[in-house]
């Protein structure tokens, strides 16, 4: 293999004297003087342990020689060494050091936190008294379906600012979360604003609702078992108070709405009865249907009599003189009967054109013999008035409106009584089936699990960072 001097750039066949004390290399074929080249080669013997050689003095001006293959092998080896050092350094800074710090903090410094939980469900009573209508039953079913909404409402309230303000009225939350001896990273720090307290409160409470079962779970953490139990018990009372207030407000609104319906129905009934009274005054009859029925019966009876009298008169005229007394008497009775029918129908404000026509025919027949009486009878007939069917139709419309108003009024009265009955009972309530209890051991923080999570997260971040770094470096190269 060719030899190159790194500084002088000498040719391949130029012999170089080795530096004093430099070991001879058996692998590389060197250019030797001609006298040494023609010498007889020595037989190959087994390698023996070299004897100690005297250390020769090194020339200060002698330059070391380099092998191209050795130089090519040394450069990648140094790169790999630098790369390995960089990888281990980054792993220590990004993974090992954070994991060690987390282990020291969670193992030696962090304060214990105690858990108190309670479970509840918002329920509605199935209150359906006797006589309840289908509408009220449907409203009750809708109210029961709204229980999920009430559960979500309570869960959202427990993590809200309103819950913190209500708790602060009875408990000193700042003192509970800022007790002496609690580590600085776990305790309540920062300013004394309500926003800071609410933010810290949301990190110490876990409220969830299972939509499949309709059950809610609330977990509260504090730095002493008594504090956690006190806070959880107060939250149960506040949840019940909230649901009772909402339910009471709904019941009051329902009663108020029912009362307004009754007022409207009462006014509607008054208007219907006033219209009926005005109709009676106008038509001069207390009950047009009954009066008309009786009048029609009487008119039919009188018409029957009138028909009989007319038949007798026609029979007498066949063989008697028209001026005979018997004929005159029958004509007078016929005219009187017609007037009676007209007078009866006039009492309810009706005219009868048929009777008037009959009386006119009778008067015309009498005028052929006597003249004057028949003319007087015909002139005594009043003018035509509205027919009886129109009056009955108007009466039925007015009376039907009155009946509808009365039924609507009865319905609203029943709804009002039902609303008042429901308001007297507590319909919606919080059923706490798991009461808060004092913790006997600390469950938070989970030291080993948290440290492991930090290690895995840091390792993933380190791996991604290394991959991105090498990808960018290879792209640039």
Q: In the CATH classification, which architecture of one domain applies?
A: 2-Layer Sandwich
N-end to C-end Cα span? 31 Å
Q: What is the CATH class designation of one domain?
A: Alpha Beta
CATH topology of one domain, by name, is Bacterial polysaccharide co-polymerase-like
Name the shape in a single word.
Answer: rod-shaped
Number of discrete helical segments: 14
- Content of β-strand: 5-15%
How many β-strand stretches? 4
**Biggest β-sheet, characterized?**
4 strands, antiparallel
Low-confidence stretches: 1-14, 16-40, 59-63, 141-145, 351-359, 362-385
Give the helix proportion (percent range): 55-70%
SSE pattern: HHEHHHHHEEHHHHHHEH
- Sheet with most strands: strand arrangement: 2-3-1-4
Class per helix and strand makeup? alpha+beta
Rg on CA atoms, Å: 60 Å
The overall pLDDT, averaged over residues, is 75
Question: How is the topology of this model organized?
Answer:
Blueprint: H1 34-37, H2 68-109, E1 114-124, H3 134-145, H4 147-158, H5 161-170, H6 173-177, H7 194-204, E2 205-210, E3 215-222, H8 225-283, H9 288-317, H10 325-346, H11 353-367, H12 372-380, H13 388-424, E4 428-434, H14 447-476
Antiparallel strand pairs: 1-3, 1-4, 2-3
Helix pairs in contact: 2-14, 4-8, 8-13, 9-10, 10-11, 11-12
Region (Disordered): 1-50
Protein name: Capsular polysaccharide transport system permease protein
Coiled coil: 255-282
């Amino acid at each position: 293999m060719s030899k190159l001097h790194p500084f002088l750039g000498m040719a391949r066949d130029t012999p170089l004297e080795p530096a004093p004390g430099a070991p001879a290399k058996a692998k590389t074929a060197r250019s030797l003087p001609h006298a040494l080249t023609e010498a007889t080669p020595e037989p190959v013997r087994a390698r023996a342990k070299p004897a100690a050689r005297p250390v020769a003095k090194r020339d200060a001006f002698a330059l070391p020689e380099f092998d191209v293959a050795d130089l090519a092998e040394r450069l990648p080896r140094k790169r790999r060494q630098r790369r390995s050092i960089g990888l281990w350094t980054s792993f220590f800074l990004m993974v090992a050091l954070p994991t060690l710090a987390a282990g020291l903090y969670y193992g030696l410094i962090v304060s214990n936190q105690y858990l108190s939980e309670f479970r509840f469900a918002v329920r509605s009573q199935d209150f359906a008294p006797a006589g309840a209508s289908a509408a009220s039953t449907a409203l009750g079913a809708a109210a029961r379906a709204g229980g999920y909404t009430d559960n979500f409402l309570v869960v959202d309230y427990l993590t809200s600012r309103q819950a913190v303000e209500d708790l602060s009225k009875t408990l000193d939350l700042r003192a509970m979360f800022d007790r002496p001896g609690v580590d600085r990273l776990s305790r309540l720090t920062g300013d004394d604003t309500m926003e800071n307290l609410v933010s810290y409160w949301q990190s110490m409470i876990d409220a969830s609702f299972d939509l499949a079962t309709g059950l809610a779970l609330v977990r509260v953490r504090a730095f002493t078992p008594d504090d956690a139990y006190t806070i959880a018990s107060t939250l149960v009372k506040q949840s019940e108070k909230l649901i009772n207030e909402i339910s009471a407000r709904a019941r009051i609104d329902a009663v108020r709405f029912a009362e307004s319906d009754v007022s409207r129905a009462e006014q509607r009934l008054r208007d219907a009865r006033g219209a009926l009274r005005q109709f009676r005054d106008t038509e001069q009859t207390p009950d047009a249907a009954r009066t008309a029925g009786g009048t029609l019966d009487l008119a039919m009876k009188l018409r029957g009599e009138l028909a009989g009298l007319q038949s007798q008169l026609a029979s007498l005229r066949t063989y008697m003189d028209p001026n005979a007394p018997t004929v005159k008497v029958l004509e007078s009775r016929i005219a009187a009967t017609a007037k009676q029918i007209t007078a009866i129908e006039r009492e309810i404000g009706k005219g009868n054109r048929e009777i008037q026509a009959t009386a006119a025919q009778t008067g015309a027949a009498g005028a052929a013999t006597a003249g004057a009486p028949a003319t007087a009878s015909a002139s005594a007939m009043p003018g035509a008035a509205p027919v009886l069917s129109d009056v009955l139709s108007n009466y039925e419309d007015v009376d039907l409106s009155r009946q509808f108003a009365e039924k609507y009024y009865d319905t609203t009265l029943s709804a009002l009584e039902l609303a008042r009955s429901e308001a007297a009972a507590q319909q919606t309530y919080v059923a706490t089936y798991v009461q808060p209890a004092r913790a006997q051991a600390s469950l938070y923080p989970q030291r080993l699990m948290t440290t492991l999570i930090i290690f895995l997260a840091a390792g993933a971040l380190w791996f991604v960072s290394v991959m991105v770094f090498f990808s960018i470096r290879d792209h640039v190269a």
